[in-house]
Design a protein that fits this description.
Blueprint lengths: L8 E11 L4 E8 L10 E8 L2 E12 L5 E7 L7 H6 L6 E5 L14 E6 L3 H13 L4 E7 L8 H8 L3 E5 L8 H6 L6 E5 L2 H13 L7 E4 L12 E5 L4 E5 L5 H7 L17 E8 L1 E3 L7 H6 L2 E3 L4 E3 L8 E4 L3
Parallel strand pairs: 7-8, 7-10, 8-9, 10-11, 12-18
Antiparallel strand pairs: 1-2, 1-6, 2-5, 3-4, 3-6, 4-5, 12-13, 14-16, 14-18, 15-17
């Protein structure tokens, strides 16, 4: 059986939409069953993609004190599986089905110091944490990294809100974040919260482990759609049930298997919990691990894959990518 969040579904009316950048749209929803929103919370949204109902998760970037209105900021990336396009197409007064705020990425109040690290659209999960830490007078730094200033949503507002506590790194300005320097400069008691592309988060985790810092002090959330290789087509086979499925760039391995009738285990769908892990029996190509569940040693083993986000890439170029897995 598939595991799911214990969620209360409700209707929500779109009351505002605004284009923040060329790829990011802010969507404000009026909730029918308001609930308080904690920093790091997200909503799940039911959407229809090509005639099928699916579920997507979006961080809440801000909300009214009573939770009657919540704002999402949705990034439409080249790796989007269709949900972002549906969200971007929403217009004022349309009604969608959403959960109550769900909290899988909580901020612990009481640490001696904090670093909040956001890469790109990861700022949506981090902004509320910065707002709370400022309000309670905590010792914190907010680090925001992006490809270009024009692609970095809320940059002006964050600058005004946090002043010299905000540290900005912009790729096309030659000021990209130096992860090793960041981690080497941290006090051992500092808690680091991060959300962003898998490459950034992998680099931070490696540097963190090299310094042998406390792993409970490193907390993260990922959106699971960025990897080391461009998303391509590959084939997955489950011999024991006679199933062979083609996974296309716009879908995940989990979605393709579900659509073919396979009974899959899963929960987070973001590569964080490991419940969708399957054992690899044969591999042609390379596993593009997009999860944050496995350690670096486990990823090198190539014996397992989190099918909710990870993929198989064509290596070398032109070789058909294929993976044979064990039934769950």
């Amino acid at each position: 059986m598939a595991a799911t969040h214990a969620a209360v579904w409700q209707s929500a009316r779109v009351v505002e939409t605004d284009e923040l950048t060329g790829d990011i749209r802010r969507i404000v929803l009026e909730m029918s069953k308001p609930a308080k929103v904690e920093p790091g919370a997200h909503l799940d949204v039911r959407i229809d993609i090509h005639g099928a109902t699916d579920r997507r998760s979006y961080s809440i970037v801000d909300a009214t004190p009573d939770g009657s209105r919540v704002a999402l900021s949705v990034y439409r990336s080249p790796a989007s599986r269709g949900g972002a396009a549906v969200m971007h197409a929403l217009r004022r007064d349309e009604v969608v089905q959403v959960t109550q705020p769900l909290l899988d990425f909580p901020l612990r109040v009481g640490a001696p110091a904090y670093v909040l690290l956001a890469g790109g659209i990861g700022i949506t999960a981090i902004a509320g944490m910065g707002r709370l830490l400022k309000s309670i007078g905590a010792d914190y730094r907010l680090i925001y990294a992006g490809r270009s200033r024009s692609a970095m949503a809320y940059l002006d507002a964050l600058t005004a809100e946090h002043g010299d506590r905000l540290e900005v790194h912009v790729g096309d300005e030659g000021t990209s974040l130096q992860v090793s320097r960041l981690v080497d400069g941290l006090d051992e008691a500092t808690e680091l919260y991060m959300c962003g592309p898998i490459r950034l988060m992998d680099a931070v985790r490696r540097a963190w482990m090299e310094r042998e810092l406390s792993m409970p002090n490193l907390r993260f959330e990922t959106f699971g759609n960025s990897g080391w290789f461009a998303a391509g087509t590959f084939t997955v086979q489950i011999p024991t049930i006679g199933l062979e499925v083609v996974v296309r760039p716009g879908e995940t391995m989990l979605e393709a298997l579900e659509a073919a009738g396979a009974d899959m285990m899963y929960d987070c769908r973001k590569g964080e919990c490991g419940l969708c892990e399957v054992r690899v029996l044969h591999l042609e190509g390379a596993i593009d691990h997009r999860d944050v569940f496995y350690s670096e040693r486990q990823k090198d083993a190539k014996s397992k894959i989190c099918c909710c986000v990870s993929r198989v890439a064509e290596v070398p170029a032109g070789q058909a990518a294929r993976v044979v897995i064990e039934a769950t």
